Amino acid sequence: MTPALPDRPIRGRVPGVLTAYGPAVLTFAAFLVLWEVAVRLFAIPLYLLPPPSRVAVYIITHADTFISAGLATLRLVLAGFAISIALGIPLGILLARSRIFARTVYPLLVGSQTFPKLAVGPLFVVWFGFGPMPKLLLAFLVAFFPIMIDATTGLQSVRADTLMLARSLGLGRVRTFLQIQLPQALPSIFSGLKIGSTLAVLGVLVAEFLGAAGGLGYLVITATGNLDTVLLFSTLVIIALMGLALYGLVVVCEKWSIGSWYNVAPIRAP
């Protein structure tokens, strides 16, 4: 009977929030201070560049507006991102495991990425109107491809000798995939999810620029038309916070998922 191998330890500890993000926070705080001082020192007009303090006050005093618009955009972002994951990862698995599927479908998928996807947004509006469908489709189109490609790359990067060892131990295709290929592909899969999370926000916003009665994109168009730079900067701050929150959620899921795979029971010969 093959002796059990010791569990693989997780090297090091997850650094604290202050240690990990302290330099970035301090750099950003210094940038805001310089921005505030420069606007007041050079008496830059408000319609050209509002100071950060004015933007912060505006966000607080108009919190209801930003919450309502942010939730409308966030729902579409999460839905488009979820559709991208639901289709991108299974297609990545098929591309990695089926040569016939890769030879017939992969060139078509690559070819579809050669034209600017954001340019088809007006066409979606013509086809589906100003409802949520154009926004979901555009979010899906821009976020789908990196998720699929990184999933395929991660699954194909498993070493051949590792797969041969699995076969010699008598592992079937399903167990080999679940216990060897998928755990080793998780870093690549989550890399695609990180990219897709930010692109999903971009896709929904562009669709809202083309036509919407609400959402953060609508606020941007309204602020631009009225030359309201305070509203414009405030909306951009909310958009940035939304993108960071979604990216951070993916990072948390990555740490939890990869950590749980490292702590699973070792593979034993049947």
- Which residues form runs of ≥5 with pLDDT under 50? 1-14, 263-270
* Number of DSSP E strands: 0
What is the CATH level 1 assignment? Mainly Alpha
Mean pLDDT: 81
Structural description of this entry:
It is a single chain. The chain has a single domain (52-262), classed as MetI-like fold, CATH 1.10.3720. The protein is an all-alpha fold. Helix 2 packs across helix 10 (229-262). The protein starts with 16 loop residues before the first helix and ends in an 8-residue tail after the last helix. 77% of the residues lie in helices and 0% in strands.
Structure keywords:
mainly alpha, MetI-like fold, disordered N terminus, 0% strand, 77% helix, 270 residues
Layout of helices and strands:
Layout: H1 17-41, H2 52-61, H3 63-97, H4 99-112, H5 121-128, H6 132-156, H7 160-168, H8 173-210, H9 216-225, H10 229-262
Short description:
With 270 residues, the protein is mainly alpha-helical.
